[in-house]
Amino acid sequence: MPVSGAKGVSTMTLPVPTLDHVVINARDDMDRAADIYRRLGFTLTERGYHSLGSMNHLAMFGTDYLELIAVPKGATSGRLDLLNFSFGLNGLVFGTEDSAVTYAALSKAGVPVEPPVEFTRPVKFAGGQGDARFRTVRMKAGIVPYGRVYYCHHFTRELVWRDEWRHHGNGVVAIARALIVDPDPVKGIKLYEDMFGTEAVRDIAGGKSLVVGNSRFDVITAAALEEQFGNAVPDPEGRPAYMAGLSFRTTSLGKAARALQDGQIAGVMRSKDRVVVPAREAMNAVLEFIE
Q1: Could you say which of 8, 60, 113, 137 has the lowest number of CB atoms within 10 Å?
Q2: CA distance 139 to 141
């Protein structure tokens, strides 16, 4: 969608929404988070340490990934802002191939973004190692009431999307959906309309949905979430708006169910078209597996 300027329509266009990754906040309890997500059937990369002071594990899929993020216990510097957020889904990250262009287009459109920030993370892999480099463009503080929304520009994709990390016991190959609860979905979707244009947004039962490549972000009411997931929903912890959960595409529901059984995950609900893990078993994020 072209961004209009004072002298008419410019050649600068809004970004196309593509999914880079999603983030589960483990606060300062990474050991527990990593154990849980391995038992959920995900293959996790080795623990990595960002130059900004956080640490992570990744579950890599075809073109996107899941990130577990935390700060070390007892940390007094670094990404201490992670401690201000609840456990659970905390970050929705869009992809960009040129963060400078993305920042310029969003700024011109009036989207409240911070200037790009660059950081690194050492990566070890079979036969070598290197420094993964990233540049992010984030929303300004206070704009997103339910977590962190930003863009990520990868300079070293070969150190992140490695095939040996893409194979998972639960058969997951992609992120199909992220779920956001907002008491007013029309208001909640407005940021994404500003970021990508109204044509990227659809009406759905109980709210609105943003088309994100082959995935989608659903902004729905708490009642709509409960209608879909019953008592498997996360604890909002007093938050009127929050990121609630994820849907994963798997090659086999049977494979996903077996992985969850092997991992001794409690309360799993299975039907003919999905397998659901209650939020209480997945760091306060409801997880759905679909084919």
Answers
A1: 8
A2: 6
